[in-house]
Design brief:
The chain has one helix spanning 2-14, and strands at 27-38, 49-60, 63-84, 91-112, 120-138, 141-163, 166-177, 191-199. With 200 residues, the protein is mainly β. Strands 1-2-3-4-5-6-7-8 form an eight-stranded antiparallel beta barrel.
């Protein structure tokens, strides 16, 4: 990770006068590392294991449409706790590990607020579907559940050119998903995604 950050800094130093073209009819691809912050009752630990790939087609110099897929792997250890059966007829004491794997797939629309400027802030919205696989492990046993749901992904970000045809991007998005889990009382399995990527 340190080597990746160093490479980005070197690019920024030696290419500050360059300008990335975002022209109508142009195809853009991006790949990003994503950090996931859960906003549900199933998990609370940050996920550092995530990524995103995206294709964009520029409709105008300041607008694009595209398709993207991302993934995040969440894991959380819960110390030993006593859990009562709902009817009060029994209890179990154990520590557990909760895991969640999410894959949102969306069609996207992005608008670049200052087409032609050095730094390009943008806003976007993605609509699509999300696959979630949840699991709880206790001792030698485990329970699992998976589901498909609707996802809406509003996003804000900036693109900073590092060459005439490429840029570094930084974004924040909220994956609002309708997925639920039978393994918890979580009403939905949504999360915030912070991405650092490369557009080319």
């Amino acid at each position: 990770m340190k080597k990746f950050i160093l490479i980005l800094i070197v690019f920024l130093i030696f290419h500050t006068s360059s300008y990335a073209q975002f022209s109508a009819g142009q195809d853009k691809f991006s790949i990003a590392w994503e950090v996931g912050l859960p906003s549900n009752d199933f998990l609370s630990e940050t996920s550092w294991r995530g990524g995103r790939i995206e294709y964009q087609r520029m409709l105008k110099d300041n607008m694009s449409v595209g398709i993207a897929a991302s993934w995040n792997s969440f894991s959380q250890y819960v110390p030993k706790t006593t859990y009562q059966k709902p009817d009060g007829s029994g209890a179990i004491t154990t520590d557990i590990v909760r895991e969640l794997y999410s894959v949102p797939i969306t069609a996207n629309l992005k608008y670049y607020f200052k087409a032609g400027d050095k730094i390009k802030p943008y806003g976007g919205i993605g609509l699509g579907t999300q696959y979630c696989d949840q699991a709880i492990y206790f001792n030698i046993y485990g329970l699992s559940d998976d589901s498909w749901g609707f996802v809406a992904r509003p996003e804000l970000g900036i693109a900073y050119p590092v060459s005439p045809t490429s840029a570094i991007s930084l974004s924040v998005a909220y994956n609002y998903a309708s997925n639920t889990s039978d393994l918890s009382d979580a009403g939905h399995l949504s999360h915030v995604a912070i991405g650092l990527g490369f557009v080319f």
